[in-house]
Amino acid sequence: MTTIFSGIKPTGHLTLGNYLGAVSRWVSTDQHRADALFSVVDLHALTVEHDPARVRRLSRGTATLLLAAGLDPDVCTLFVQSHVDEHARLSYLLECVATDGELRRMIQYREKSARARETGEGVRFSLLSYPALMAADILAYRTDEVPVGEDQRQHVELTRDLAVRFNQRYGQTFTVPRAVAPRVAARVMDLQDSTAKMGKSHADGAGIIYLLDELDTVRKKIMRAVTDSGRDVVHDRAARPGVANLLDILSACGGGDDPVALAASYDSYGALKRDTADAVIEVLRPLQKRHAALAADPAEVDRVLRAGAERARSLARPVVDAAYAAIGLLPAA
Ligand code: TYM
Q1: Is 197 a catalytic residue?
Q2: Is the pTM of this model over 0.90?
Q3: Helices 241-253 + 269-295 axis angle, to 10
Q4: pLDDT tens digits, residue range 19-29?
Q5: Which domains does the chain have, with CATH numbers?
Q6: Is the pLDDT of residue 299 over 70?
Q7: Which of 48, 53, 133, 249 is deepest in the core (most CB within 10 A)?
């Protein structure tokens, strides 16, 4: 059976980008067609300046939202990364396989370290080693497929390189995984700045749709989205990134019509924005309703996470033990 693993960092409130780039497919197809594991990867939230209480709160909050979005604990495994020691155990071995050069080449490291330097915050060493931990998340389950948005593709490519290198040096241990990005909306852009990804850690929320935004606010944000000069509606990501972004969102929320073909049915930006707002709101309304019910019962969410961690541990343990033995560590007697 195919194994799928993916993760999400509790560094902010989930956005429409997270939903369309990753979560919606976890829910609609991945969990039903494979042995699927999804993790709130809290250790990854410590790589930049963080508030401990907020990370704790967002970890449970993220799990609650994933359940509200439709992850079904009867068919998939949902857990918090730090509840399963195997991730950190394996990460160190992969740091011993990765090179300093390849980690420094990661786009996210370059961007985030530049930002941290600018603000005088200091660059945490874990920001550099982050992809080794992400590779451990994936390889510990002998994962075949990693459903992610476009921005994570480079990290999954590195994971593949590390798996191949480890297997060549120390014997066949890991499955070599592949990234799977959605056809449409693999990179949802900020509604106020079409050159920037819609990201949950950004400070200014005007261009970001959060899954728990009031529905009126969602409509306002979309109606105020920056479109491009020009008037006709065409899907041209280079020349009209704002309009292309709206068409992608409409396509992904409205049942998957090809965004290029969709463009032909509009002759004004206003109508496109109205339909996009309607489609997004129809996706968010039921999710928010389920969220309200689940958030009232945190003990149930904790129960799901406990059971998920137990299952994840039982899968990861033998794989990580095998990696320890292969790389030359003496098994504990
Ligand atoms: P994170 O938490 O930034 O994002 C979670 C998922 O959402 C996708 N995504 C987007 N997709 C489309 N448009 C956007 N604007 C957008 N913003 C985010 C991301 O591509 C991702 O799929 N390093 C990972 C978390 C991680 C992980 C893993 C993922 C840790 N270990 C193992 C897969 C497998 C991250 O920071 O995702």
Answers
A1: yes
A2: yes
A3: 50
A4: 999 999 999 99
A5: 3-181+297-327 (3.40.50.620), 215-293 (1.10.240.10)
A6: yes
A7: 249
